[in-house]
Amino acid sequence: MQSIYGMLGISPEVEQFGERVLAGLQERFAQIDAVAEYNQAKVLAAMQKNRVSAECFAGSTGYGYNDQGREVLEQVYADCFHTEAALVRPQITCGTHALAVALSANLLPGDELLSPVGKPYDTLENVIGIQPSPCSLAEYGVSYRQVDLLEDGSFDYDAIKAAIHEKTKLVTIQRSKGYQMRPTFSVKQIGELIAFVKSIKPDVICMVDNCYGEFVEMQEPSDVGADMIVGSLIKNPGGGLAPVGGYICGTKACIDRCAYRLSAPGLGQEVGASLDVMRALYQGFFLAPTVSAGALKGAVFAANVYQALGFLVIPNATEPRHDIIQAVQLGSAERLIAFCEGIQAAAPVDSYVKPEPYAMPGYTCDVIMAAGAFVQGSSIELSADGPLREPYSVYFQGGLTWYHAKVGILMSLQKLYEKKLVDLRV
Ligand SMILES: *Cc1c(COP(=O)(O)O)cnc(C)c1O
């Protein structure tokens, strides 16, 4: 082992430090494996029930009428996530697009959208119109209301109750913390919130932004009352193989509207050629429980390595996980840059590239990003990024295999160690 890791540029000190941390994680990893085993069976059962066959991989062109592969895949997603219907398409360009379709399809002028979990993901600010933007929901006369989380990260039930009124049509709940410092919600917590909202207004539509959460638990938000769950195929459910796409699973009433919004009124789900991506979408979904488990092990390992070195990590080394993101507060620009250099150096693609901080739209400071992915921007593949400002936190996620995630974390530590930015004798 030491010689092969040596070939990758990892020194014996770093490797041994990693092994000491890993020795304490066996039970944790066994729990992750048990969830993956359950979810593998869940995906398999949905594929068998829907008689997935080689014909499903053929794809279609043009209008895409009678595209068997597309129709069966959507039924597989619906059955796996226990929803009436699903929209799973390469025409959904990313997670933000999927969320924008779900929102704009189900909100009409005069309706109000409520986020009871604080500020939504950055890219949704333009979709909703929190940041004024052409074609935003605000421009179409959909108003927006937000209830922030309480100091301790829990739901402000009193304020949520007060914010629901006759115009409230749709409630959006973001499962993952994204790039905020709040906790990620468990499926159980999301279920409690949905039940509360529905007890006040039974016909309100509850949508969950499920990005980064798929297959982390045995249940999904659709099992606890969500009318729609939404996500990206270049994150967990694509299993690293999907080259593009997004999904929306939910009630037939909601999904029908989403399909009309995505294509055109009257056309809906009947059109949309699947081209040549079907095999990858099926195979990726089949692998997704295992791939997500590998990424989760990487996140747990990273938390334990960096907490042992004295850094603040969110989530911490021992708490339960509800998504695959790990934040590490590194405390200095030098450490943040070294960490990202290590992740980049560990990549299978573009490992020879050195990431540099640069100005990004929407940020008031430089940002550094590390990724060497088979699919552009895929964040189920090993990647890390962080803004160069206090407290110099890095957000780390992905890894198509646990072993690659492990190499990435060891390599990040190697770079810190070489630059004398950490002390391994703790
Ligand atoms: C990734 C993500 C999105 C969507 O991002 P895209 O880059 O458009 O796929 C939305 N919400 C959350 C919480 C996310 O993590």
Give the total of beta strands: 13
What is the percent of helical residues? 25-40%
- The helix-and-strand class reads alpha/beta
Counting DSSP H or I runs of 4 or more residues, the number of helices is 12
Main β-sheet: number of strands, strand sense, barrel status? Answer: 7 strands, mixed
* Largest sheet, spatial ordering of strands: 1-7-6-5-4-2-3
Approximately how much beta-strand content do the residues carry? 5-15%
In whole angstroms, how far apart are the ends?
23 Å
Radius of gyration: 22 Å
Tell the overall outline.
Answer: globular
- The ordered string of helix (H) and strand (E) elements is HHHHEHEHEHEHEEEHHEEHEEEEH
Low-confidence stretches: none
The chain-level mean pLDDT equals 96
Small-molecule components bound: pyridoxal-5'-phosphate
What would you note in describing this structure?
The chain has 426 residues and is α/β, with parallel strands linked by helices. Helix content is 39%, strand content 14%. It is built from twelve helices and 13 strands. It has helices at residues 2-7, 12-23, 26-49, 68-80, 95-106, 124-128, 157-163, 187-200, 252-262, 278-308, 333-345, 402-418; strands at 85-89, 112-115, 143-146, 168-174, 205-209, 228-232, 246-250, 312-314, 326-329, 358-359, 366-371, 383-387, 393-397. The strands form two sheets. The protein has a seven-stranded mixed beta sheet, sandwiched between helices. α2 (12-23) crosses α10 (278-308). The protein is globular. The mean pLDDT is 96.
